[in-house]
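Sanity check

After download, print the first record. It should look like this:
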Amino acid sequence: TFFPAVLSLPAGSSATFFCNVSVENDSELEYSLNWYKESNHSQGQKIAEISRNSLQTKTEKYVLTNHTSAFKMEILNLHQSDSGSYYCGLITFTPNKVIESNRSHLVVTAAPENTNPTEEPELEEGNPPDHIKAVLLSILLLAGLVVLLVFGYITVMHRRGDVQKPPSEMAPEEEKPTVVPVPTVDYGVLEFQVDQHAQVPFETYLITHTEYATIIFPEEKPVTPERGKKRQD
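Expected structure tokens:
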């Protein structure tokens, strides 16, 4: 028996068929298994062969593997020209006999477009992939955390400045009173000169006369004679 009965595969893929063999008292029977292909109802053409004692037969196009009474047959790198009917034929040597299996049909369709695995599928607009969404969300959370930290630092420093500020600086400044300069008089350094005219006898003074003087110096540049200077008559 040969199965599956029908296969429809795209170009570039591989097709796999199985051929089951059941022979009475086959422990000493020697046989080979041929694989045939029919195209456009023409006579079958032999394309591969494997013997009972072989584990595998491989060519560039076909691979036959012996699984003990079940043989797997593969067609590699399908082309549309591989479409057709396939079957297996059991050939015995003692006695000489040929037994053919049923037919299975293979249809190879055109290869799908954009089959290159390296090409990335186009993203729909407004639908970013999940990993980009995760990165954007992480950036937003990090930015919010930085803003909160800066705001908290400014608040703490502002409060600390209010606590450490002395009460005199926190109170409103009072207007300083206007300083009025007060004139001062130093009577100890006043000097008077006696008139140098002709001396009048002491007896002529009828009344003892004392004179006083008040000298006011500007506050900016006070002028004061030295206290240690000798007094003149």
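If your output differs, re-run the checksum step. Summary of this record's structure: Residues 2-109 form a domain with the Immunoglobulin-like fold (CATH 2.60.40.10).
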